Amino acid sequence: TSSVFSYREEEQELFVGGTDFVVKLNANNYSVIEVSNSYFLCRPCRNVITVIEKFQDNMFVCGTNGHKPKCWKLVSIVESCEGAGISPLVYTHNCLSLTVDGDLYAAAPLDIEGNSLQFRRKAGKRTKVWMYDRWLSEPTFISASWVKRSEDPDNEKIYIFFREKNSDHSPDADPWISRVARVCKTDEGGSKSFFQNMWTTFLKARLVCGFPDESLYFNRLQDIYVMHADDWRQTRVFALFTSSWNSTAVCIYSIEMIEKIFENSTFKGYAKEIPTPRPGTCVSNSKSLPRATVNVVKDHPEMVDWVHSLHSKAPFYVSNYNYTKIVVDRVQGADQQVYNVLLLATGKPRSICADLICTFQTLQSS
């Protein structure tokens, strides 16, 4: 089985979910504050906890619940609700969750075979919205992140990082393509007559990590760490990739660079004049978007241009170890300078003490 973690920084509390239980720990000394298991028991079945999120000022827990996903809101009286589309039916299936401004977003299969996997807005004050089936090909979702814009909240977006099966099946083609997609926080879906409850702002682009001069790429996205900045343009995305030749690479992207691709690239397979407003633009009322704009999103959501890393000629870091997880910490050195430090871990036991890689001053200014 696996464990899921949720850290509440303000309260200095760490929630850990396993099979049929959730434990709340004091994050300062890891002493147990509370053990909750009576709510989550599923006898004779197993309830593997897959989601723990802070949602509407409460902790929101979801689990497989014997192939009948269920969620619980941890208030004074524990409330339960259906968890389909939030927790997978099988704990090994791909899933992710994210809370944004009082809304819950999630990706989880809707059946025991792992089908109908897509990124949805599942609960909260805004309309429930989901994806058009043709947008993705057997995706594996890696991470989702809300990037705030204090000066322009109506233009805030949610970025989704994933890999999907390559439509090019030639022998030389990599079976996977790594992607970044985005949707507007204000997206409420289309009108009642067209694209109702579907994302009207969904766009996707290819993430490139490798040696472009040699046409050598790390194509399989494994993990993401987003380092937020006060200026949203400076927010950094640290992406961990693996390759077909069993090497690992770290590439770094800025949200500003990602946005430039979505705002300026042409649309793959679309040769007509780009309608106004441009497809993917955040508007106050998505239900009023012209059909011409929504049609481009519906049929041509992929960008022609690729998203290159800040160090475009080569990855920031390359290793022969098979890393699967990445975290970035900011630490003060003996010289009083603040440095970014990459922590990389493999999937093997006893690898929690990950390889320590010192970053450079150029990383802070790039």
UniProtKB/TrEMBL annotation:
Q: Which GO terms describe its cellular component?
A: external side of plasma membrane
- Molecular function GO terms recorded: chemorepellent activity; integrin binding; semaphorin receptor binding
> Sorted alphabetically, which InterPro entries does this protein's record hold?
Semap_dom, Semap_dom_sf, Semaphorin, WD40/YVTN_repeat-like_dom_sf
Please list the residue ranges annotated as the Sema domain. Answer: 1-366
Q: Which domain of life is it from?
A: Eukaryota
Q: What are the entry keywords?
A: Glycoprotein
Q: Does the record's keyword annotation contain Disulfide bond?
A: no
Record PROSITE patterns? SEMA
Q: Which Pfam families match?
A: Sema (PF01403)
A Gene Ontology biological process in which this protein takes part is: semaphorin-plexin signaling pathway
Protein name, UniProt field: Semaphorin 7A (JohnMiltonHagen blood group)
Origin organism lineage:
Eukaryota, Metazoa, Chordata, Craniata, Vertebrata
